[in-house]
Design a protein that fits this description.
Blueprint: H1 42-47, H2 51-66, H3 75-79, H4 87-101, H5 105-110, H6 112-118, H7 124-136, H8 143-154, H9 159-175, H10 180-191, H11 196-209, H12 215-218, H13 221-227, H14 233-250, H15 258-270, H16 273-279, H17 287-290, H18 297-306, H19 315-328, H20 336-344, H21 349-365, H22 367-370, H23 385-398, H24 404-414, H25 420-436, H26 441-451, H27 457-471, H28 479-487, H29 495-507, H30 515-525, H31 532-548, H32 550-565, H33 570-583, H34 596-601, H35 624-628, H36 662-672, H37 725-738, H38 760-769, H39 782-785, H40 806-819, E1 831-832, E2 842-846, E3 854-864, E4 872-880, E5 886-892, E6 901-903, E7 908-911, E8 916-924, E9 932-937, E10 942-947, E11 955-959, H41 962-971, E12 977-983, H42 991-1001, E13 1005-1007, E14 1014-1021, E15 1027-1034, E16 1039-1046, H43 1049-1064
Antiparallel strand pairs: 1-11, 2-3, 3-4, 4-8, 5-7, 5-9, 6-8, 9-10, 11-14, 12-16, 13-14, 14-15, 15-16
Helix pairs in contact: 2-4, 4-7, 6-7, 7-8, 7-9, 8-9, 8-10, 9-10, 9-11, 10-11, 11-14, 13-18, 14-19, 19-20, 21-23, 23-25, 24-25, 25-26, 25-27, 26-27, 27-29, 28-29, 29-31, 30-31, 30-32, 31-32, 31-33, 32-33, 42-43
Membrane topology: Peripheral membrane protein
Keywords: Cytoplasmic vesicle, Golgi apparatus, Membrane, Phosphoprotein, Protein transport, Transport
Pfam families: Adaptin_N, AP3B1_C, AP3B1_C_2
């Protein structure tokens, strides 16, 4: 933001006054000097007419505030400078006023009128700063003024000011929660804003003020999904977290019917016709249960639009997308987040810590997701201890019978580390691996037993504790280890380790009947010198041996109990007194004496070695609550999936119906009728200049944003922040005349939140209204030329060329040149050509093995789709290679991205064995190479397929003269121009080869060119009608330069790559 350099981009202040702070300690001099005489002249400097003096004075005043000095006596002199024209001075004045607003409310109220004037300032930065300061004054009496200011700012023409208004909403809410209803109205208004600058801030305000008002999101859901990729990073985090909770309340769980899907698929494959006939009657009753899960298109939209953000440079954005996929995506698709999370492990240790916390939770339920990246979790010597322990946790979660040998070798290396806490955690990890994977239990036990002789006490103690837990699982099979541990009692001095060994011997004394009494003898001998924890276990051992082997241990037990009776520790004395009364029968002994053996020798359950992250997934991943494993203040629970899907129509947005201005219809007809009629039936006159004067400043969320097809210049950028009002006026002046000859392309409002300005029905009716006599020969609408053609004729052959008579070319050039002499600012409308005649490539849609004998291929025929000129025609060839008839072949419930549209082909009722059928379907790809996903259904099976278009098939050829080409190319310079140098092979040195290769890579039309070494081609994108101009200049030595001019920079970049490959091959 422009407001970011708060005070002094220069290091030491104003250069005119010197820079004394450069080489000094801030505490000893510079602006923090304790020389109070320097501040005597501050008022004079503030009253000066020189901005440099005022700026220096404000810097010194802010420095005083930073040191805790009282500068309130300067308030009148500072407030006067709010009206200063120097923006740096103003910003520092605002900093000062915010500081003293709460402490000195009376003085702050005096400056309210100044801020209110600032809210009307022509500069958007001043308006925003005034609102920011006003909202920072914590004075309840000015709440109505703040509310009025926020409402006005929410309607401001500058997105930056509207963003500041969104920031002010939570501040006002915390000051006076009674204003919630009015603030919700402002939030609702700002949620409808189509500017990426505002989206993140208003969603943050929504989360702070009214997160329960989910109904406010319905109408804006698709828009937020489409805008998400362009919102600033921290706004993306807020929006993704909000949409995660929204999706959990509005969509069904994608994983609830996985088992049912597998069962149905298997039955459909192996079932016979007789079984199908028997099940026909039972179908209606169980239809709901048997119906496979089909993801809601809005659910799919969210997943598709957040997936690219996994490449974000901001770790918080990547983590937000990862948690969204973990909580919302089908299990088969969650794996895409693994690579992005592993990438974050190369970041700072703080980022690694948070990421590993979440990976540890994910790896418990989705182990296979991170298995390919096992080596990424290997521990480096430079890792901090907490990172090492978390990586150990992940490695342990990922351990299975396949990779356990590799992981154990890693653990063997880690045990030699000098970090004792890390070594102890490694030993625990080995114990968990032994618990979870039975085949390595013996190996782990043997390794842990060897660690018992380690010099380090912590290693030995941890090993003994883990061995004790492992032995509890199968004590009978490991009596040798118990014997070995008994022998170590002479050498091990760690109290915890000695106590654990004694507990093991006492618990399983029946497995070592000869060794246990001898161990008790040694312990009794050194009883007075042992630690308290060891003494307690010696007493327990004596009691257990007395109950199982009283002949050998009776005297030893009495001796131990007598020693304990006089011990200094009262816990030991109490234990000895209690056990003596329990195991040694006397006249006063009660009924408990009979149950002593059951009390001491009862079989105890083996401890379960589980991950500490096992139950953390009930917290939302990436949240502070998940990190702490405790519910933090303000944490919102992640809602459960609904049992039944709520009504999806609540997210539909009505298409606005634009009324035509009758006073201009005749004028439009006169302009449109003569020559520049659109040959594709797309020549409907635009109404953007008449009915939608502010379309230039509106935001569009998808790639199919409204744009004039008649103009090659790039449309008004929706996310652009207008610095001054004059820029907006100029844009409107330019937009109006252009709108007379262009028309605005639209996409379905039902599936996308992008702004639509016209409909397909309008363009169709206007095409009918255009008399064919007005068109030059050979330029009739292709839908009329192919109307009587059967869909199955020559499905994969290129369409026959339709030659354009030379007379039309001459007349077109003449009319174009004459049109260029007009004094108006109206741009020319290029005329659509017949399809280009490059080689048509075929693609496989469904392999005959996957389709169980049904093979489907498709190609892009490069003919206009009859029903809708904004759709790409896709020719589909279906072959039945089975021995049975295929019935009811159709497209079922297409679920593309919300901005896409699919026109299904007519249902094929029956396809005999060995027969082939050809059909045509239309797809509006919205100028994007993203795949269109849909479902092909027969009477027995459902196949999920997708069609992904090459970028060259997203356009239609356009006829232009050389002058038109140069004029449009001049408008598309700078960022709209992409250049690539390449070397042409020998076979691609002649004109015919170059034209053939370019037209095969892209559906473009050739433009006449006077130079022999230059080739020009033109096309327009099918959906938005944006011009794409291609220039290939052949140079000496077989080199060439390829230039593409287009306002669609993404399409231009991809097209350069495709054409270069076609020419070089």
């Amino acid at each position: 933001m422009a407001a970011s350099p708060a005070y002094g981009e220069e290091k030491g202040g104003s250069s005119s006054l010197g820079e004394p702070e450069y080489g000094h300690d801030p505490a000893s001099g510079g602006i923090f000097s304790s020389d109070y005489k320097r501040h005597d002249d501050l008022k004079e400097m503030l009253d000066s007419n020189k901005d440099s003096l005022k700026l220096e004075a404000m810097k010194r005043i802010v420095a005083m505030i930073a040191r805790g000095k009282n500068a309130s006596d300067l308030f009148p002199a500072v407030v006067k400078n709010v009206a200063c024209k120097n923006i740096e001075v103003k910003k520092l004045v605002y900093v000062y006023l915010v500081r003293y607003a709460e402490e000195q409310q009376d003085l702050a109220l005096l400056s309210i009128s100044t801020f209110q004037r600032g809210l009307k300032d022509p500069n958007q930065l001043i308006r925003a700063s005034a609102l920011r300061v006003l909202s920072s004054i914590r004075v309840p009496i000015i709440v109505p003024i703040m509310m009025l200011a926020i409402k006005e700012a929410a309607s401001d023409m500058s997105p930056y000011v509207r963003k500041t208004a969104a920031h002010a909403i939570p501040k006002l809410y915390s000051l006076d929660s009674d204003q919630k209803d009015q603030l919700i109205e402002v939030i609702e208004k700002l949620l409808a804003d189509k500017t990426t600058l505002v989206a993140g801030s208003v969603v943050m305000a929504f989360e702070e003020v009214c997160p329960e008002r989910i109904d406010l999101i319905h109408k804006n859901y698709r828009k937020l999904c489409n805008l998400l990729i362009d919102v600033e990073e921290w706004g993306q985090v807020v929006i993704i977290n909000m949409l995660t909770r929204y999706a959990r309340t509005q969509f069904l769980s994608p994983n609830q019917n996985e088992s049912l899907l597998e069962e149905n698929a298997e039955k459909a494959f192996y079932g016979s016709e007789e079984e199908d006939a028997k099940d026909t009657k039972a179908e209606p009753a169980s239809l709901a249960k048997r119906k496979p899960y089909v993801m809601d298109p809005d659910h799919r939209l969210l997943l598709r639009n957040t997936k690219p953000l996994l490449q974000s440079r901001n770790a918080a954005v990547v983590m937000a997308v990862a948690q969204l996929y973990f909580h919302l995506a089908p299990k088969a698709e969650v794996g895409v987040i693994a690579k992005a999370l592993v990438r974050l492990l190369r970041s700072h240790s703080e980022v690694q810590y948070v990421v590993l916390q979440n990976v540890a939770t994910m790896s418990i339920k989705r182990r296979g997701m991170f298995e390919p990246y096992l080596k990424s979790f290997y521990i480096r010597s430079t890792d901090p201890t907490q990172i090492k322990i978390l990586k150990l946790e992940v490695l342990t979660n990922l351990a299975n019978e396949t990779n356990i040998s590799t992981i154990l070798r890693e653990f063997q290396t880690y045990i030699r580390s000098m970090d004792k806490d890390f070594v102890a955690a490694t030993i625990q990890a080995i114990g968990r691996c032994a618990t979870n994977i039975g085949k390595v239990r013996d190996t782990c036990l043997n390794g842990l037993v060897q660690l018992l002789s380690n010099r380090d006490e912590l290693v030995v103690a941890e090993s003994v504790v883990v061995i004790k837990k492992l032995l509890q699982m199968q004590p009978a099979q490991h009596s040798e280890i118990i014997k070995h541990m008994a022998k170590l009692t002479d050498n091990i001095q760690v109290p915890m380790a000695r106590a654990s060994i004694l507990w093991l011997i006492g618990e399983y004394c029946e497995h070592v009947p000869k060794i246990a009494p001898d161990v008790l003898r040694k312990m009794a001998k050194s009883f007075t010198n042992e630690e308290d924890i060891v003494k307690l276990q010696v007493i327990n051992l004596a009691a257990k041996l007395y109950l199982t082997n009283s002949k050998q241990s009776k005297l030893l037990t009495q001796y131990v109990l007598n020693l304990a009776k006089y011990d200094q520790n009262y816990d030991i004395r109490d234990r000895a007194r209690f056990i003596r009364q329990l195991i040694v029968p006397t006249e006063k002994s009660g009924a408990l004496n009979k149950y002593a053996k059951k009390l001491f020798l009862a079989q105890k359950p083996a401890p379960v070695l589980e991950s500490s992250f096992k139950d953390r997934d009930h917290f939302q991943l990436g949240s502070l609550s998940h990190l702490l494993n405790a519910k933090a203040v303000g944490y919102q629970e992640l809602p459960d999936w609904p049992d039944e899907a709520p009504d999806p129509s609540v997210r539909n947005v009505e298409v606005p119906e634009w009324t035509k201005c009758t006073s201009r219809e005749k004028r439009k007809e006169k302009v449109e009728k003569p020559f520049y009629s659109d040959s594709e039936g797309e020549s409907g006159p635009t109404e953007s200049a008449d009915s939608e004067p502010e379309s230039g400043s509106e935001e569009s969320g998808s790639s199919s944003s409204s744009g004039s097809s008649s103009s090659g210049s790039s449309p008004h950028s929706p996310s652009e922040v207008e610095e001054e009002e004059e820029g907006g006026k100029k844009a409107k002046k330019k937009k109006a005349p252009q709108g007379r000859k262009g028309h605005i392309e639209t996409s379905s409002e039902e599936a996308s939140t992008t702004e639509s300005s016209s409909s397909g029905s309008d363009s169709g009716s206007e095409a009918e209204g255009c008399p064919h006599e007005a068109m030059p020969p050979g330029l009739f609408p292709s839908c009329c030329l192919h109307e009587a053609e059967p869909l199955g004729v020559s499905p994969f052959s290129p369409p026959p060329p339709q030659p354009i008579p030379s007379s039309s070319v001459v007349s077109t050039s003449l009319v174009t040149d004459l049109e260029g002499l007009t004094l108006t600012d109206t741009s020319l409308t290029p005329t659509l050509l017949s399809p280009a005649f490059g080689a048509v490539k075929t693609y496989e849609l469904l392999h005959r093995m996957a389709g169980e004998g049904l093979a489907i291929e498709y190609c892009f025929s490069r003919r206009p789709f009859p029903g809708d000129p904004h759709m790409v025609a896709v020719q589909i060839q279906i072959s039945n290679n089975t021995d049975a008839e295929v019935k009811n072949l159709r497209v079922s419930e297409p679920k593309p991205l919300s901005s896409m549209r699919i026109q299904e082909f007519p249902e094929i009722e029956c396809l005999a064995p060995g027969d082939t059928a050809s059909v045509v379907m239309g797809i509006d790809f919205c100028d994007s190479t993203q795949a269109a996903n849909f479902q092909l259904c027969t009477h027995t099976r459902h196949f999920y397929v997708s069609i992904q278009p090459p970028v060259g098939e997203l356009m239609a050829p356009v006829f232009m003269s050389e002058n038109e080409f140069k004029k449009e190319q001049g408008k598309l310079m700078g960022m709209s121009e992409i250049t690539e140098k390449l070397t042409l092979p020998e076979k691609c040195q002649n004109d015919h080869a170059i034209v053939q290769q370019v037209t095969s890579a892209a559906n473009v039309g050739r433009v006449p060119c006077g130079a022999s070494n230059e080739y020009r081609f033109a096309a327009k994108t099918v959906t938005s009608g944006s011009l794409v101009l291609i220039t290939l200049e052949r140079r000496e030595g077989g080199t060439a330069q390829l230039t593409i001019n287009s306002e669609k920079m993404v399409i231009g970049t991809m097209l350069v790559k495709d054409i270069s490959q076609a020419l070089v091959q």
